[in-house]
Specification:
Two copies of one chain form a homodimer. With 253 residues, the first copy, chain A, is of the alpha+beta class. Helix content of chain A is 41%, strand content 19%. The structure holds a DNA duplex (30 and 30 nucleotides).
DNA sequence: CGACGCTTTGATTAGAATCAACTCGAGTGG
DNA sequence: CCACTCGAGTTGATTCTAATCAAAGCGTCG
């Protein structure tokens, strides 16, 4: 039962020891305040791929943060179309949708095995109202979520397929680097279909986009393994510039 | 100077007398608490069409609510493309972008002459931390903003032009009805270009969409004057149903 | 009255969706 | 150990939607 022991150790480690501390809700909070926050955090056993933290219509009892593993949040329209609202890497808060009416409007699905911290929202709000630094930090985290949504929006609107894909890879790389992983060589936690539903494209278009980037020498891709070979070029493509340095302005080939 | 007198009366009316009270930040807040909130509200003189409440990069000193008139919030990407993030009718909070980093990332532009209330954010947060009911309401309003953004997102992704336009008109009608105006006969506060940049379409496509809806007898439109003739059909179109009742499935005409 | 901005309409084109077939790899079970 | 299946991903052919380019109509405001 080697793994079980490891799990228990993992489960008992508090926010103060967590490697994500600086990126997560506790960022910038003093020792004493951190202790109070730490006390309401429930560290759950691992969730399996495909498991849901909550579903649309559930009362917003808690918010969650992945310690490791990734999640997607999905909104299903009345006609059954699934729209991926966001991907959530470790340290990024999950479940603040539903702040408006107290009920979740999306579902949060684990993309692989994951470990999460659960923070009962009532208690979180109660502590926040006593600790200005936590209130401020909570607002900041919410605001960052709004910013991510807006960036997502800008990515979807009036940008073409290849730009969206480049922007997606570029952004994902940055977020991975933020949490201390390699931003240039990683395994995508989500399927092509998830990416397509996030970017508002057909999954074939996503696949073609990846292939195109590979042909152009910008990335190397094999299934979910991605390596970014030319980060500068990727960034350029992401911001809507047409061609690459090898052929700055060619006629239609 | 008849108008001036009216303006002054207008300026002095507090939240307690405001017709928007139930829709605005004060909703559900008790008399005593309302008074505290009321004291920090600055009621400004009218702003002219095209004037800005704030610009990208400004520190987020205040949030705003229109008492009358409408605003748009616009994000400008590095390549100069303008994306309309949202439209704001009376009672809807403006300026919560920038919660993440303390600086605005969008600009808020008046679509016509408008009257706004300004709430200095520091003071608002300070009062909120003393009044749980206001804190709760503030979170709720923020949450509703997030929900609107998500709806906007869903509207943009994988819906076709005509659906987006129908959804836009349908949603606008509902919001107008909410603030006590007619939801079926109104004047659009924004240009076709603004709508296009909100919906992620070319302005010609928006114009064609309006014409198409008019041809189908769903709306009557003349410039910015819109009348919704068949609300049920509009709702149906908005939710992705193909044809209307008169011609359930016709070949290309 | 004329000019300008906003809107509508028309013709053409480009980009992505859709439909369809095929490849690859991981399990599964014979 | 190998054939088989199943799901994920890739690639190709075709179609269709909406962008783009272009021009004309309309209303308003000097």
């Amino acid at each position: 039962m080697e793994t079980n022991v490891v799990d228990l150790v993992q489960l008992r480690r508090g926010c103060a020891q967590c490697s994500l501390q600086q990126l997560c809700l506790p960022a910038g909070i003093g020792q004493d305040d951190l202790k109070q926050l730490d006390e309401i955090v429930r560290r759950k056993r691992p969730v399996a791929a495909g498991e849901r933290l909550f579903r649309p219509g559930d009362t917003m009892a808690s918010v969650y943060v992945a310690r490791d593993g990734a999640f997607k949040t999905v909104s299903t329209s009345e006609d059954g179309e699934e729209q991926v609202i966001g991907f959530h890497l470790p340290g990024e808060l999950i479940g603040l949708d539903g702040l408006g009416h107290g009920r979740h409007r999306v579902e949060a699905v684990a993309l692989g095995t994951a470990n999460v911290c659960e923070l009962p929202f009532e208690q979180l709000a109660a502590i926040a109202s006593r600790l200005p630094s936590l209130q401020q930090q909570l607002l900041r985290v919410i605001g960052q979520g709004v910013e991510r949504d807006q960036d997502h929006l800008s990515m979807l609107v009036r940008r073409q397929a290849n730009e969206r894909i480049a922007l997606f890879l570029h952004g994902l790389g940055e977020r991975l680097r933020n949490i201390g992983e390699s931003g240039s060589r990683f395994r995508l936690p989500m399927s092509r279909e998830d990416i397509a539903r996030f970017l508002g494209l057909a999954l074939e278009t996503v696949s073609r986009g990846f292939s195109r980037l590979q042909d152009d020498g910008v990335i190397a891709v094999a299934g979910r393994r991605v390596e970014i070979l030319d980060a500068a070029e990727l960034a350029r493509l992401a911001h809507g510039v047409e061609a690459g340095p090898p052929a700055p302005r060619r006629a239609r080939s």
